[in-house]
Design goal:
The structure holds two protein chains of two kinds. By secondary structure, chain A is of the alpha+beta class. Chain A has eleven helices and eight strands. Chain B has two domains: 209 residues, D-Maltodextrin-Binding Protein, domain 2 (3-Layer(aba) Sandwich), CATH 3.40.190.10; 96 residues, Periplasmic binding protein-like II (D-Maltodextrin-Binding Protein, domain 2). Helices cover 39% and strands 16% of the residues of chain B. The chains are: A alpha+beta, B alpha/beta. At the A-B interface, helix 10 and helix 11 of A face helix 1, helix 4, helix 6, strand 10 and helix 7 of B.
């Protein structure tokens, strides 16, 4: 590196960045923020798209996987078509399709499409009425934490008492009522926790409210629709792996269909589903680096792009980036493995 | 365990790559051995670096590469053009993938001091500007408060833009991509209100738009952009060759030596022309070249004025005026040291 006159060390971390980023979850300004802050902006954007993508892909994947096993011929065929189409087209092409063919041709801000409840759709993204913290935010946050803890406590007490006595005593309902009443009382006492601003056209763009940029939308759509196709197949395999006799036995015991699914099929299917599901989550996170192609400011784009270019600290930056993706993947895998251990068969 | 092994492997590979680069001999020897100059250029910027419909590269920056290849080999075709995005260009030069960079690159202090590049000169004096749709009714960059602006990632434009808006207490939303075509597509589709890059770049990108007449370039020039070729630090001989290939073209224009008259100029009695064309002195040999190096450049590539007019001036669709890029004695600031 010395021979190549490349910068050594990590001194760049505290230097002023001098460039702007469109989507920043933490305050970022070209004039005062450092390359280190730019790193965190990129990291948060990566985590945001990965987290949202995982949730959406899982919901959609489970839905389609179950639909593919449906007795309804049309539903089953449509699900099969979905899976075959989305998993067989390269993800990069899908991203470019959503970004260039669907979101770009939307009208300009001044000719925006107006959606119900004050939301606006144009080629700069979706602008929604946006929540902002108000006076009651902190008391409300506290109340919510308390309510959840109390509710969970009541639920556990209810379960224990049912296990001991065999009777359900409605303790859970008390918990639920308390969990609802507490935040409500807080809101009445301290005022509303959030105030909502509506998107308004001002000059070139909509200001106020919550803007979801087309780059995020396209990346989210592409990643979750693509990964959902794989998850659907995993879910189908999982459900089909549960022996037919299990359902029949449960039905013979007189369990209603929902309980058969909840207590007999799903727990056994999950054992088959979780390990490959972990792979899909890891893939989705790593695939989010394709953001570069559509200009979404994720870690790879911001840090390995602009920051690397401006500082020239290529080796350090590439290593940091690799380390971060490795860390994200390991944490995801760890969480999934813990869940897997809980769901696995415990032989006695 | 596997993680640890793969990490170790990655480190080893990285170290091996770095060590390999460090052992390279002089750049001139490497280029001669390879029989080919590897020159980093634009991916597609009409007038500066773009392949035509037959795959031949054309442009001012491309001809700067050809001049160097001609100085070394006497043959302007012995160049391999490596198209690079602004983001990748410096890494490509540092890692030895290219021998020189001639890609619309602004000469700045940090690029030279911190990134290990040496700029050899300026082949185009430029400044950053804005382009907007006429229908927007904007006539000045000062009215762009709150606009979404398309800007190329990893360019000085990104910083100048932030500086300019900060100085004028305005805000903007950057939309950035790492390649020029994605930027121009985003602007054309209305994703951004304005496009910003060097003024020459705007003129050139405008040609790629659906209807160029619908767009105007705003009068403000917000920065200095001296664009020029660069080499890696640490090889002075190679630096000299790249630097003087450009200077020779500029001096040739000043002395009135053109592609057409270079052969008759060989008989000129003007000592400056004699030295330039290698009739007198050992100016080529001192750089490890033959003495007809500059003769070859002028004969096979042309002098600076010819290269300018052919690629970006009156002989091109861009029709850029010489402006700052006119010779110093004709009202511009183009001034090459004498070949003495």
């Amino acid at each position: 590196m010395l021979a190549r006159h490349m910068p050594l060390g990590f001194g760049f971390w505290h230097q002023t960045a001098g460039f702007d980023i469109e989507q920043a979850l933490i305050p970022f300004a070209a004039s005062s923020s450092t390359y280190g802050t730019a790193f965190f902006v990129g990291l948060l954007n990566t985590l945001l798209v990965a987290a949202l993508g995982i949730v959406l892909a899982t919901l959609l994947g489970f839905l389609i996987g179950i639909a593919r096993l449906s007795g309804n011929f049309v539903v089953a065929r449509l699900s099969a078509a979905y899976v075959e189409m989305f998993r067989n087209i390269p993800l990069l092409l899908q991203l470019l399709f959503w970004y260039n063919a669907i979101l770009r041709p939307l009208p300009a801000p001044r000719q925006s499409l107006h959606l119900p409840r004050g939301a606006v759709l144009n080629n700069r993204g979706i602008m929604l009425p946006g929540p902002h913290a108000a006076a009651g935010s902190w008391p409300m946050a506290l109340a919510l934490v308390l309510a959840i803890a109390l509710g969970a406590g009541f639920l556990m007490a209810a379960r224990r008492s049912r296990k001991l006595t065999g009777y359900a005593r409605g303790l859970g309902w008390w918990g639920l009522a308390l969990a609802l009443a507490l935040p409500l009382a807080t809101a009445l006492a301290f005022g509303p926790p959030l105030h909502v601003t509506m998107p308004q056209l001002q000059g070139f763009n909509y200001v106020h409210g919550l803007s979801i940029y087309p780059e995020l939308l396209a990346l989210l759509l592409g990643l979750s629709l693509y990964t959902a196709a794989f998850i659907a197949e995993i879910v189908r395999a999982g459900i089909q792996s549960v022996a037919r006799g299990q359902r029949e036995a449960a039905a013979a015991l007189g369990l209603p269909p929902v309980q058969i699914l909840r207590w007999v099929v799903v727990p056994q299917a999950l054992r088959v589903i979780i390990p490959p599901l972990t792979n899909q989550y890891l893939n989705l996170t790593k695939n989010s680096t394709l953001a570069v192609a559509i200009g979404y400011p994720d870690l790879a784009q911001v840090f390995m792009g602009t920051v690397l270019n401006q500082t020239g600290a290529a080796v350090q930056i590439v290593f940091i980036t690799m380390g971060v993706y490795l860390a994200i993947s390991l944490v995801t895998a760890l969480a999934m493995n813990l869940w897997n251990r809980r769901m696995a068969l415990h032989e006695r | 365990m596997t993680t640890r092994i793969s990490l170790a492997l990655v480190t080893l590979t990285a170290m091996a790559t770095l060590a390999g680069v460090a052992h390279a001999t002089s750049t001139l020897d490497t280029v001669k051995q390879r029989g080919m100059l590897q020159c980093g250029v634009e991916t597609s910027l009409p007038g500066f670096g773009i392949p035509d419909d037959k795959g031949n590269w054309t442009g001012l920056d491309v001809d700067t590469c050809r001049a160097v290849a001609t100085a070394v080999f006497g043959d302007p075709t012995k160049v391999k053009f490596v198209p690079l995005t602004p983001k990748d260009r410096f890494t490509a030069l540092q890692s030895g993938e290219i021998d020189m960079l001639s890609r619309d690159t602004t000469w700045t202090q940090s690029r030279q001091s911190a990134q290990g590049l040496l700029f050899t000169g300026v082949n185009y004096y430029d400044g950053q500007g804005f382009m907007v749709r006429k229908s927007l009714g904007v006539t000045s960059a000062l009215k762009l408060n709150g606009a979404s602006i398309c800007v190329q990632q990893g360019s000085t434009s990104e910083q100048n833009l932030a500086d300019y808006f900060q100085t004028h207490h305005m805000t903007f939303k950057p939309v950035n991509f790492d390649n020029a075509d994605a930027i121009i597509k985003a602007y054309d589709s209305g994703r951004c209100d304005a496009l910003t890059t060097d003024a020459s770049g705007l003129a050139s990108e405008r040609l790629k738009l659906g209807n160029p007449a619908d767009h105007i370039i705003l009068p403000e020039i917000i920065s200095k952009e001296p664009l020029g070729p660069s080499v890696r630090k640490g090889d002075d001989q190679w630096f000299d060759i790249v630097q003087w290939s450009l200077f020779a073209m500029i001096d040739a224009e000043e002395l009135g030596v053109t592609q057409a008259n270079v052969d008759t100029m060989m008989k000129s009695t003007n000592p400056a022309i004699k030295r330039l064309l290698g009739v007198e002195g050992d100016y080529g040999k001192t750089m490890g070249l033959t003495n007809d190096w500059a003769y070859n450049i002028i004969k096979k590539v042309g002098n600076y004025g010819e290269v300018f007019e052919r690629n970006v001036g009156s002989g091109s669709p861009l029709k850029l005026k010489r402006g700052l890029n006119q010779l110093w004695n004709k009202g511009g600031i183009l001034y090459a040291p004498p070949l003495d």
